[in-house]
Amino acid sequence: MKYYILFGPPGAGKGTQASAMAERYKLRHISTGDLLRKEMAAGTPLGKKAKSLIEAGSLVPDEVVEGMIENAFDTIKDVDGFLLDGFPRTTAQAEALDKICASKGGEVTACVSLMIPDEMIRERIKHRASIEGRADDANDETITNRIRTYHEQTEPLIAFYKKAGKYEEIDGTKTIDEVRAQIFSVMDKH
Ligand code: AMP
User: Fold this and answer.
1) Residues 9 and 116 sit within 8 Å (Cβ to Cβ)
2) Is 37 a catalytic residue?
3) Are strands 81-85 and 2-7 parallel, antiparallel or unpaired?
């Protein structure tokens, strides 16, 4: 099994690139953000708990998303691997992921990172808000907090995966086609 991480700040283009990546490498795309939004839409207890955190631009507790990933790995069988989008987002989650992969006899294959500057994060999120209507894309304060949360809690993972020799950074400011081509050339190596 391959375990790819699709990494990057909010608005970097992860969701845009994920389906082509999943299709080409026969991976199951798992977005913890999408899973949480489904729980919210269904009004489950988990969805209700997550709602206020997501709308504030904060992270939900590590155990919640770790459980989702573990559950997906346990139940999804007919694929060559997984494409994790929006997970891990903290060092604790990355350590948990290493353990979960090891328990399956595997390891993280590579961390494919789409990088864009902060100014572009805002532009991209505003643009997405007009298309997808996500509550957490529409509010300036929430966007500011998501950018801060990314820098404080998620950015340290760059060093984590560099140290593991698994970090592959791609310039996310390029066109969708150019970014996709770069991603494929990196993934072909792993
Ligand atoms: P996303 O769609 O990846 O931007 O995620 C939307 C929101 O869901 C985030 O701002 C967080 O509040 C929550 N979320 C998604 N993935 C995670 C994660 N791995 N850890 C904690 N919170 C998450």
Assistant:
1) yes
2) no
3) parallel
Domain parsing of the chain, residue ranges: 2-188
Who's near 19: CB < 8 A, 6+ residues apart?
29
> Annotated catalytic, 24?
no
Beta bridge mates, 27: 81
Distance in angstroms (rounded) separating the CA atoms of residues 114 and 101: 23
Q: Supply φ then ψ for residue 29, to 5 degrees.
A: -80, 120
In one letter, which amino acid is 61?
P
**Ligand 1 environment, Cβ below 6 A:** 10, 32-33, 36, 53-54, 57-60, 65, 86-87, 89, 93, 136, 146
pTM for this prediction: 0.96
Instruction: Let me know if 180 is a catalytic residue.
Output: no
Mean pLDDT per block of 10 residues along the chain (190 residues) reads 98 97 98 97 96 96 98 96 98 98 97 96 94 92 96 98 98 98 97
Closest protein CA for atom 14 of ligand 1: 33
Beta-ladder partners of 33: none
* CATH of segment(s) 2-188: 3.40.50.300
